[in-house]
């Protein structure tokens, strides 16, 4: 008799629809190879990879949760908001993506101009070509810097040139976390605070966002040691929020954790789905 199928759930990964290295189909094929049963595809400010990923998943036996990661900020620090079980075609989300991506294009021009002024002659066209119509961001600049010998790796390029205070940094207008949560809810999904320590003050972020619809906290994350993860679980519980986690996989060599390197139990998916269905019931949307 066959053993019951084990569930392996990774709720946070990226494809070429944003700054991942694998196409949505390649990502799902890799998930199948890694014996994952559920992945959350959470590209930055885009759902363009979702349909291809869901289709591939249906063929390969991987459930793909339609997701997104919205690039919001609190006081200039990344406060990324993950959305799960969203309708990828949502007009509300697509409206946000349109201005966010226009702003991103302008920011890339500025970053390249700043680098050029600092004596690093990289070409905006090369950066845009690398993003290939997906959400363009600093990781694409980093890859062009590496390809042209100005940095040894993507993370080296960030450290030398692309983080705040460095010559290639440029700020741009971002969606507020409240705006991100509202857009996710209008798309029938639930919002989770990604890698909470990027805000440098997870408690303040959760205190601010729990009253406006935040549903969960990404407690399990590759860069967080177990005690940090436990503190985040306590924080989530104190506010009655769900605990989630994921690898934030972008491709080989981008982060330390491989796809499936951070797993959550299947109950997490059930809880997110139940919460999304409650949001959906309120606005008469189909259940997921
Ligand atoms: P952007 O959206 O253009 O501001 O770029 C943010 C993305 O860059 C994040 O989603 C990460 O994928 C990546 N990133 C941010 N900081 C670093 C870093 N220090 N090293 C490598 N990748 C980074
Ligand atoms: Fe990224
Ligand atoms: Fe993020
Ligand atoms: Zn991410």
Helix count, DSSP H or I runs of 4 or more residues: 10
CATH class wording of the largest domain:
Alpha Beta
Give the tally of β-strands: 9
Give the integer mean of the pLDDT values. Answer: 96
Radius of gyration: 18 Å
The CATH homologous superfamily of the largest domain is named Metal-dependent hydrolases
Q: What is the 3D shape?
A: globular
What is the architecture of the largest domain at the second tier of CATH? Alpha-Beta Barrel
Low-confidence stretches: none
Q: Could you say which small molecules are bound to this protein?
A: adenosine monophosphate, fe (iii) ion, zinc ion
Q: How much of the sequence is in beta strands?
A: 5-15%
- Count of domains: 2
Helix/sheet category: alpha/beta
Largest sheet: 7 strands, mixed
Biggest sheet strand line-up: 1-2-3-6-7-8-9
Order of helices and strands: EHEHEEEEHHHHHEHEHEH
CATH topology of the largest domain: TIM Barrel
Helical proportion, percent range: 40-55%
The end-to-end distance, rounded to whole angstroms, is 32 Å
List the helices and strands and how they pair.
Blueprint: E1 9-13, H1 24-33, E2 38-41, H2 50-60, E3 63-70, E4 73-74, E5 77-78, E6 81-84, H3 91-117, H4 124-131, H5 138-147, H6 154-162, H7 177-186, E7 190-193, H8 202-209, E8 214-221, H9 226-238, E9 242-246, H10 266-282
Parallel strand pairs: 1-2, 2-3, 7-8, 8-9
Antiparallel strand pairs: 3-6, 4-5, 6-7
Helix pairs in contact: 1-2, 4-5, 5-6
């Amino acid at each position: 008799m066959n053993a019951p199928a084990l569930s392996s759930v990774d709720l946070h990964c990226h494809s070429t629809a944003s700054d991942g290295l694998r196409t949505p189909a390649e990502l799902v094929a890799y998930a199948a190879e890694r014996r994952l049963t559920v992945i959350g595809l959470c590209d930055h400010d885009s759902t363009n990879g979702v349909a291809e990923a869901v289709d591939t998943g249906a063929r390969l036996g991987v459930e793909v949760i339609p997701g997104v990661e919205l690039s919001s900020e609190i006081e200039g620090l990344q406060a990324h908001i993950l959305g799960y079980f969203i309708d990828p075609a949502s007009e509300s989300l697509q409206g946000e993506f349109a201005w966010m991506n226009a702003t991103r294009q302008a920011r890339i021009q500025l970053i390249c101009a700043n680098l050029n002024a600092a004596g690093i002659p990289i070409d905006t066209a090369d950066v845009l070509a690398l993003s290939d119509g997906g959400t363009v961001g600093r990781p694409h600049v980093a890859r062009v810097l590496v390809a042209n010998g100005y940095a040894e790796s993507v993370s080296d390029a960030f450290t030398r040139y692309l983080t705040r205070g460095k010559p290639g940094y440029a700020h741009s207008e971002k969606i507020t976390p409240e705006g991100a949560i509202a857009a996710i809810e209008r798309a029938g999904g639930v919002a989770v605070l990604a890698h909470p320590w990027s805000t440098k003050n997870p408690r303040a972020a959760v205190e601010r966002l729990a009253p406006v619809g935040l549903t969960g906290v990404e407690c399990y994350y590759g860069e967080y040691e177990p005690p940090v993860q436990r503190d985040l679980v306590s924080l989530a519980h104190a506010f009655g929020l769900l605990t989630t986690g994921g690898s934030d996989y972008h491709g080989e060599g981008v982060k330390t954790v491989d796809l499936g390197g951070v797993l959550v139990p299947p109950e997490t998916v059930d809880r997110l789905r139940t919460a999304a269905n409650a949001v959906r019931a309120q606005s008469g949307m189909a259940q997921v």
